[in-house]
Amino acid sequence: MSAPDGNPVGSERSMGQLFATASTEMSALVQDQIAYARALLKQDVKRGATGSALFTVALALLVFSLPMLSFALAYGFHAWTGWNLAWCFLLSFAVSVIVALLLAAIGMVFFKKAKQSQAPQQVSAEVKRTAEVLQNAKPHPRPAVVPVDPYAKQLDSVARSSS
Q: Where are the transmembrane segments (predicted)?
């Protein structure tokens, strides 16, 4: 009997073929685990990059929009409330700081998600479990095969000459 790829299956396979198959499958398993670790780490990097981008946007908002936003808000508050212009400028600054803090808090949520990820630990634990299983694996017992020499009978029946 043969497998679909033409290789013998079961007891027809030699030890070399079994070892080659096991070696190939072990190599594929290790490669798959490496790919899995890369995918998990890539997801964590994306989360960290998103958090960094949000912090950058918060900083840019605070730095570049404060002068224009402060003037616009201060004059808007002055026209709306009639308060002293100094208090209106202070209120517009407070609104800008609150918006920046809100964006920073959203960025912290993304950083915490990236930090709490257990991706490397999960992959490491999975590799250790695989190694333990492979270390405890025992080959199937096979009956002892006594080597038979096909030429043994022929040697007994050969006449010897004494020349």
A: 53-77, 83-111
Two tokens, residue 158: 């050969």
DSSP structure string for 63-129 = HHSHHHHHHHHHHHHHHHH---HHHHHHHHHHHHHHHHHHHHHHHHHHHHHHHH--HHHHHHHHHHH
pLDDT surpasses 50 at 151: yes
pLDDT in tens, 66-110: 788 778 888 998 899 989 988 888 888 888 889 889 999 998 998
Q: Are the C-beta atoms of 70 and 96 separated by less than 8 Å?
A: yes
Mark 20-51 as b/e (b = at least 16 C-beta within 10 Å). Answer: eeeeeeeeeeeeeeeeebeebeeebeebbebb
Amino acid letter at 123? V
